[in-house]
């Protein structure tokens, strides 16, 4: 309670990564503080991500999640100590040679054979970069070595014992109305607003008047071809298209439309004959981006293994860690 009052100094009931970091920095030099000597940014980031994803505000740690943040801070700090000891050149990556030497020193593998070391390294290195990142190290270690019951026992009698408020990475089920329809008042992987806009446009792809009017807005200089900048201008300025204002999706739609494999002529412009394909592609890639962005809870436009596992569940895919 004292720690929460200190970190949530404005009393709004949730704290940001910056506020958590501020508390750690201020307490790391106090020998009587529980966070004495703690200040490890990679461990802090992993603890923050693991703690805040189950609540209503996925970018904040809420009051009820705070005990689990404390637990995660100590857990990932310990993992960082092990990782940092193996990473002898301090580049925050573990190469094969460091891993081979570190396995014995850290007792990560008991009496390892070269084959076992190589196998574990390949299993940890999920992005095939021939180096192990701290995120990869955490995911593998937690899945392989951490027993949830034993972890809970360490915190028995404290608010951090047991399960978090909701499973990490999952949100509450949507409430259902009496009609049985899902109430979609928050953006999820798909939204009614997006689906309605998509259906409206796709239904008019064969309507010449609609296509001519939309093309005229897009090709404002009348040269019968449009650039990526002109497409982006329409998406940003036209209210009917602002829903699709996601740059990664727009770039993919543009490239697909211009490519010969997508029906274009391979140049850097979208011509009027390619316009129908562009409109369809804009919605298609925006829908893909919504799914990707929902899984990418770290908002770094990359999906790590932990996010992928949780994303599979969000998509209704039941996979083991090995299959994933």
Secondary structure layout:
Layout: H1 2-7, E1 14-15, H2 17-27, H3 41-52, E2 61-62, H4 66-86, H5 96-106, H6 114-124, H7 134-145, H8 148-154, H9 192-202, H10 208-218, E3 225-226, H11 228-237, H12 247-258, E4 270-271, H13 275-295, H14 305-314
Helix content: 40-55%
CA-CA gap between termini: 39 Å
From N to C, what is the helix and strand string?
HEHHEHHHHHHHEHHEHH
Structural class category: mainly alpha
Q: What composes the largest sheet?
A: 2 strands, antiparallel
Identify low-pLDDT runs: 164-188
The beta-strand count equals: 4
Which overall shape is indicated by the principal axes computed on the Cα atoms? elongated
The average pLDDT is 77
Strand order of the biggest β-sheet: 1-2
Structural commentary:
Helix content is 51%, strand content 2%. The protein has 14 helices and 4 strands. Strands 1-2 form a two-stranded antiparallel sheet. The chain has a two-stranded antiparallel ribbon with strand order 3-4. The longest helix has 21 residues, at 66-86.
């Amino acid at each position: 309670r004292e720690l929460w009052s200190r970190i949530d100094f404005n009393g709004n009931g949730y704290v940001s990564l910056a506020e958590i970091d501020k508390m750690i920095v201020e307490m790391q030099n106090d020998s009587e503080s529980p966070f004495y000597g703690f200040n490890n940014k990679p461990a802090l980031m992993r603890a923050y991500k693991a703690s805040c994803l189950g609540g209503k505000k996925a970018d904040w740690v809420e009051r009820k999640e705070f005990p689990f943040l404390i637990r995660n801070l100590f857990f990932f700090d310990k993992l960082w100590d092990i990782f940092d000891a193996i990473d002898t050149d301090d580049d925050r990556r573990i190469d094969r040679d460091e891993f081979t030497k570190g396995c014995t020193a850290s007792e990560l593998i008991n009496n390892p054979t070269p084959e076992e070391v190589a196998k574990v390294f390949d299993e940890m290195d999920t992005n095939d970069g021939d180096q192990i990142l701290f995120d990869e190290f955490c995911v593998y270690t937690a899945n392989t070595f951490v027993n949830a019951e034993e972890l809970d026992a360490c915190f028995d009698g404290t608010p951090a014992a047991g399960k978090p408020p909701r499973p990490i990475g999952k949100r509450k089920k949507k409430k259902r109305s009496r009609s049985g329809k899902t109430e979609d008042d928050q953006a999820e992987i798909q939204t009614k607003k997006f689906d309605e806009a998509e259906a409206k446009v796709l239904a008019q792809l064969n309507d010449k008047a609609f296509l001519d009017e939309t093309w005229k807005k897009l090709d404002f200089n009348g040269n019968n071809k449009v650039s990526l900048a002109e497409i982006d201008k329409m998406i940003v300025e036209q209210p009917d298209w602002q829903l699709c204002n996601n740059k990664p999706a727009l770039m993919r739609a543009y490239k697909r439309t211009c490519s010969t494999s997508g029906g274009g002529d391979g140049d850097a412009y979208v011509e009027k004959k390619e316009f129908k394909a562009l409109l369809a592609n804009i919605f298609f890639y925006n829908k893909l981006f919504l799914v990707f962005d929902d899984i990418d809870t770290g908002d770094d436009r990359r999906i790590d293994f932990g996010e992928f596992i949780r994303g599979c569940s969000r998509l209704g895919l039941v996979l083991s860690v090995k299959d994933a």
